[in-house]
Amino acid sequence: MSFSFLIRRILGAIPLLFGISLVLFTIIHLAPGGPLDVYADNPSVSPEALEQIREAFGLDRPVPVQYVLWLRSMLVGDWGLSIRTGRPVLDEILTRLGPTMQLGGISMLLSFLVAVPLGIISAARRGSRTDSTVTLAAFAGISLPVFWSALLLQLVFSVWLGWLPSAGMKSIGDGSVSDRLLHLILPVTVLSLATIASWSRYIRSGMVDVLSQDYIRTAYAKGRREGSVILRHALRNAMIPAVTVIAIDFVTIISGAVITETVFAWPGIGRLFVESMNGRDYPMLMGLMMMGSVGVVAANIIADIVYATLDPRIRHG
Amino acid sequence: MTGPLLDIRDLVTEFRTEAGLLRAVKGVDLTIARGETLALVGESGSGKSVTSLSAMRLIPDRVGRIAGGEILFQGRDGRVRDLAQLDQRAMSDLRGSEIAMIFQEPMTSLNPAHRIGAQIAEAARLHEGLSAKAARARAIEMLRLVEIPEPERRAEAYPHQLSGGMRQRVMIASALVCNPSLLIADEPTTALDSTVQLQILVLLKRLQEEFRMGILFITHNLGVVAEIADRVAVMYGGRIVEDAPVDRILEAPRHPYTKGLLGSVPRTDHAARASGQRERLVQIPGSMVDPLRPPPGCDFEPRCAWSGPACRAAVPPLEATGPEGHARCIRWKEIA
Ligand SMILES: Nc1ncnc2c1ncn2[C@@H]1O[C@H](COP(=O)(O)OP(=O)(O)O)[C@@H](O)[C@H]1O
Ligand SMILES: [Mg+2]
């Protein structure tokens, strides 16, 4: 894969992102209700005042005009103001990004460190009791709804046992490292469970595929033992099919683990999204969703680069 | 050192399949002396690969097992070990260093993600603890040995950048890197076109003289046998049905199956090639015995022109047909 290919991929993503933004803009404006509905029944806000706010945010203009205005300011780096808080969208997103990165990053790292060995063991001992146990657990992990496992863990470890805090990033008046770590345990566990379950399946199937290849037999014939056959000959090729999934999952979580953040009152992107959705905060929603879209497109391009690093047949065409 | 290099006695190998226990090798005896080439011949499905993979102990426990017999191998230290009883650790010390193997599919037997040079030197790094630098030099030396042009450049290449014939040369180089005393070659030329086939055979023969190794050469093509073998063992339905020195097998086969195989040798001579009919085969009628439901008597009886009631009664014993040959046929005298 060449440098020019990369440039072409990136340039190709631009019209795609325009398309996405148009669709997203249309959809959120099609949704019933609007950002000013919360004031409708408030007697202290006069109809004249409402009209003024509507004009100030351009909400009185036709939707296509609103889109063009939004796009024009977006292109010069102005993400607009949040209708709900009045603060710049970008500032709001950046303050929420830190907590989400922390939660998401730790969860992804943990998932990777657990899913890869699980997938390998499962594949190397396929058909064994270990494999069936891992498989069963993985399917349970994939099919369990996140809100359910989140509420269950919260109930058991916070409400009944009282071992772990049930919500937030830190206790009021505390904020020491150990306090923060305690707050991380439950949301990280919930977020990792489903990811580990799904990634371990991808790694297992990639590994099973690779382990039946002729070159694995060649490696044994050269005198390699099982462990080094797996690490040196199988793993790299077995990771290839999992790359895209891992990249996309990463973006999905970074752009907002909506349910987990809501259940655990985590002040991150996911919760910001829910709050903005409830308030029909159009500029904020557009900002969040565009960030997610750019992330997914970027993840795909990064996945391609990783493919090329793992597989010389792609690298050298 | 005296005694054979490899002495396989009464080898039985079984697979667990969904349809039941499949006995792919049913009591095989084979011996190979130092520096000798034994060709193991038979149609597809006769159990040649399973025999060789058993000798290498490359059949995973999950799939199947060696259910009986001995695989006696005389190591460099002069000691004779039964490979069938060896633990995987001790076996992996022998693999790649004293016993090496090359496979039928040069396209898929090399790791697509590793450089050619690294794959060639791999066994030497593993068994001789070669440094990265020494390994590179050794790989280039081996590439030169198998007559690959521009070895320095090729060592840096990846498998997909090489042709099938080149890749098989690379496989040979990687097998011989530790100077093994036994080379098992499972149909190493079958996937190649005929001119390349011949080049690989010539190369193997030259290397054998240089390295003085014993070779178990597996093929389903009797035409190849004449080029390379000292002795031939013919396999059918998991058993050896005939063995003898190569000239005797080609000139006076004693088993109806060997005779049938000789009748189906592909014509690769110039006349045939010129007329475009390269592979005009006279196939043996009928098909390979179903290993899950073998007949009670001789495995070949259902396809045999010489068959009689006695053939269906019991599995015929391997009888001596001369000072150096055996055949598993009760009517072998009539067939000559
Ligand atoms: N892994 C396996 N599982 C089940 N049966 C097998 C396996 N490998 C080989 N066999 C069976 O063993 C018999 C001999 O196969 P093989 O040794 O590959 O034949 P050949 O190399 O002579 O063409 C065949 O009937 C084949 O189906
Ligand atoms: Mg075979």
Automatic annotation (TrEMBL), chain A:
Family annotation (Pfam families): BPD_transp_1 (PF00528), BPD_transp_1_N (PF19300)
Keyword Electron transport: no
Highest taxon listed in the record's lineage: Bacteria
Membrane topology: Multi-pass membrane protein
Subcellular location: Cell membrane
One Gene Ontology CC term in the entry: plasma membrane
Residues spanning the membrane: 12-31, 103-124, 136-161, 181-199, 242-266, 286-310
Swiss-Prot/TrEMBL keywords: Cell membrane, Membrane, Transmembrane, Transmembrane helix, Transport
Signal peptide per UniProt: none
The protein's name in its UniProt record: Peptide/nickel transport system permease protein
Gene source species: Pseudoroseicyclus aestuarii
Organism phylogeny: Bacteria, Pseudomonadati, Pseudomonadota, Alphaproteobacteria, Rhodobacterales
From TrEMBL, chain B:
CDD domains per UniProt: ABC_NikE_OppD_transporters
Annotated Gene3D superfamilies: P-loop containing nucleotide triphosphate hydrolases (3.40.50.300)
Signal sequence segment: none
Membrane topology of this protein: Peripheral membrane protein
GO molecular function, one term: ATP binding
InterPro entries in alphabetical order: AAA+_ATPase, ABC_Ni/Peptide_Import, ABC_transporter-like_ATP-bd, ABC_transporter-like_CS, Oligopep_ABC_C, P-loop_NTPase
Domain ABC transporter intervals: 6-262
Cellular component per GO, a single term: plasma membrane
SMART domains: AAA (SM00382)
Top-level division of the source organism's lineage: Bacteria
Keywords: ATP-binding, Cell membrane, Membrane, Nucleotide-binding, Transport
GO term, biological process aspect, one: transmembrane transport
Family named by the database record: Belongs to the ABC transporter superfamily.
NCBIfam families the record matches: oligo_HPY
PANTHER family associated with the record: DIPEPTIDE TRANSPORT ATP-BINDING PROTEIN DPPD, OLIGOPEPTIDE TRANSPORT ATP-BINDING PROTEIN APPD
Protein name per its UniProtKB record: Peptide/nickel transport system ATP-binding protein
Organism: Pseudoroseicyclus aestuarii
Lineage per the UniProt record: Bacteria, Pseudomonadati, Pseudomonadota, Alphaproteobacteria, Rhodobacterales
